[in-house]
Amino acid sequence: MKPVTLKQIAETLGISITTVSKALKDYPDVSKKTKALVKDLAQTLNYKPNSFAVNLRTRESKTIGLIVPEIVHHFFSSVIKGIISQAEKKGYLVIILQSNESYTLEKKQIELLLSKRVDGILISLANETANYNHLNSVLANETPLVMFDKIAKLVNCSKVLINDREAAYNATQHLINIGCKRIAHFRGPLLPQNSIDRFLGYKKALLDNDIAYDSTLVYILKDMSYDEGRFYAKKLIQDHKDVDGIFINTDLVAIGAIKEFNNLNIKVPEDISIIGFSNWFMSSVISPSLTTIDQPGFEIGKKAFKLLFREIKNKKNNKKINYKDVILETELVIRESTKTL
Amino acid sequence: MKPVTLKQIAETLGISITTVSKALKDYPDVSKKTKALVKDLAQTLNYKPNSFAVNLRTRESKTIGLIVPEIVHHFFSSVIKGIISQAEKKGYLVIILQSNESYTLEKKQIELLLSKRVDGILISLANETANYNHLNSVLANETPLVMFDKIAKLVNCSKVLINDREAAYNATQHLINIGCKRIAHFRGPLLPQNSIDRFLGYKKALLDNDIAYDSTLVYILKDMSYDEGRFYAKKLIQDHKDVDGIFINTDLVAIGAIKEFNNLNIKVPEDISIIGFSNWFMSSVISPSLTTIDQPGFEIGKKAFKLLFREIKNKKNNKKINYKDVILETELVIRESTKTL
What residue ranges of chain B are covered by domains with CATH 3.40.50.2300? Predict the structure, then answer.
C-alpha cells in the first residue's frame, strides 16, 4: 500500500484538494460535515501529512544535526543521550554524524546538514580542526549553532563547557597534596582547546606549588586510546624512574596505563598515583578503581540542546540572538588509584 | 544572511527560475554561457539546493531512522557506528531515537519517522514490546524495515541476528567442560527473543550433558544493569551455596557480579566461574577479565544498513523485495573469569 495522498482523499470524496487540506487543519470555512467525512476517511486510509511539504511552508524541519568525533565513547554517548532526551521533549529529531576526528569529514557533514535545512547544529570539533570557515558558514547561513566540549574560541556562537583548566589544576593539586613530587602529564593533541586548557591547569598547579615544570614529563598523545595509555605508561617508566604521579587527559588512557602498571608489577597507588579525566563508568569497576574528574556528559548534552532550542525560537520570532557560554561544574572523584591523604 | 533561493538567482540574472534550475542540473537545453553564469552566481551566493523540495520530486529523503533501546551501551553504540559508517558511504543521514525499552515511546517514534518520510527504518525492539502493529504499519506503508538484535519473529521483514541459542549453548558447554556442576543463569526479561533463546541454549546444554535442569538456578533480571548484577550475585550465594558457575545474559551484569564476588571474598574463577555475553570493551580490562561471547556489534550495524539499502533500491526500481535473515558468527572469548581446562 503506497502512502495515501490528499489527492486520493479528494477524489474519493469528490471535493477539491484545498478543501481536504483545510478540513484536516480545521479551517472555519469548511463545514462540520465535510470535516468529519475527510477526517474519517483520512483515519481509515492511515493518511500521514507530508512533513517535507509542511516544511516548505513553516521553513522548519524540526530536525537538528549533531556532529561528534566518536560515538563508541562513554562521554560522547552520554552527551548524545542528554541531547536526545531534550530534543524528544520539544518534538525535534536528531541526525547524528561521526567525524572520526577528521576535519575533512566534519566540513562535508556541515555542508550536508545545511543542505538538509536542519533547524540547528550541535558540534564537538574533531581534533584535526584548525580552520573554522565551515562553522562560520553555518552562522552566515543564520542556522543556530552550539558547540560543546571541543570548541573553537574564535567562533562566535553559544558554547557549553566545563572549566578544563580549573579541573586539571584541582587534579594536579590533589596529587601534590598526597605527596607526589614528580608528576607526569599525558595530554591530548595540540589543537583541541580542552587539551590545551588541561595542560595549562596542570602546569599552573605545579608552579603555584614551587615544583619546577619539566617538559620531558609531558607526553603528547594522538588518538587517546587504551593502547596509547599502555604504551606511554611503559615509556614513562623507562624515561623517568622517579615519577610518582600522573595526571591523564582522559579515563580510557588512564585505564590502559593502570593495566600496563599492573602487568609490570608497578603498584598503583603505592608506587604511582593516577588521576584520569571524564569519569567513564568503567573507571569505577576496574582494579584499582580510578580517581578522576567527573565531567557531566548527560548535563552537557541537555544544556547544549536547550541553548540551541532557545536560538531556534528566537530566530523564528525574529529576535536577536545573544550568544552564551555555559560552564558546568566538575568534581574530583577520589577512588583507589591515588594514595590517601 | 538568509539562504539564497533559485528565485533570487533568477531575478539577479534576469532569467526564469526554470532556466536557473535546469542550468544547475546541466540540462542540455540551456546554453553553456548561461550555465556558467548561473553556477558562478550560485557559488558566490553560497546557494544550497533545498533538499526538502528535491524530496517532493524524487520521493526520497536520503534519510533513514534508527531506533535503539539505549545509546550509552557498548553493544548498541558499536551497532550505531557500523550503521553510520555504511550510511555515510551511500550518502544517507541517520536519525537516531532511543526507546528507553518502552513500547509506548517506540510506537510514537515509528509514527514520527513515518511522518518524516524516512526512506527506511532500522530497529532493535524495546524489552516491553509484545504488540507489533506499529511495525506492520511500517511495512503496510511500504517503508523498508530491518530488525536487528532484539527482533520479533512474527514480523515479516529482513533481520540481522546472531544464533543466540547456539552461543548460549557453547558458553554453558564450556562451563561444563571445565568441571562446573551447579550452573546458574542470569537471564534477561521474558519477552525479548534473544533472552528466550539464550535461556533455551543454556537449558539444552545442561540436558545434553545429563545435568538436571533446576529452575531455582535461573534468575530473571529486569533492567540488565551493573547494579542488578551485584544484587543477584549476592542473592545467588545466599540461595545456593553450592553454585560453581554462572552464565550471564550480558557483560555489564557479569561485571557487577564479579565486583560483588570480589567484595564478598568469593574467588572468581576458583570458587565460581563466570561467562558473560556481548564482549564489551570493559570486560577485557576488569580483574579478573571476563570470559564472554563476542557479539559483533559493528558488523551487525553494517549488515543491517546494507540490507536496508538493498530494499530501498529495490523499492525505487519497483523490484520485489525478498526478506532475508542474516546470521552473523559469534565466538567464545576465554579470559580469566573461568577456570582453565
Answer: 59-161+297-329, 164-295
CB contact under 8 A, B94 and A95: yes
Instruction: Indicate if the alpha-carbon torsion angle A113, A114, A117, A120 is positive or negative.
Output: positive
ipTM metric: 0.77
Nearest to A52 among B49, B111, B117 (CB): B117
Task: Say which amino acid occupies B101.
Answer: E
Q: Which helix (H) or strand (E) holds A314?
A: helix A297-316
**CATH class (in words) of the domain with range B164-295:** alpha beta
- Which uninterrupted H or E stretch holds B158? strand B158-162
The CA distance from A49 to A24, in Å, is 9
For the stretch B201-249, pLDDT in tens is 999 999 999 999 999 999 999 999 999 999 999 999 999 999 999 999 9
CB A208 within 8 A of CB A236: no
Cβ–Cβ < 8 Å for A66, A94: yes
The model's pTM = 0.80
- Nearest by CB to residue A51, choosing from B116, B141, B285, is B116
Closest alpha carbon within chain B to A89: B105
Strands, E assignment, chain A: 63-68, 93-98, 120-123, 145-148, 158-162, 183-187, 218-220, 245-248, 273-275, 292-294, 325-328, 331-333
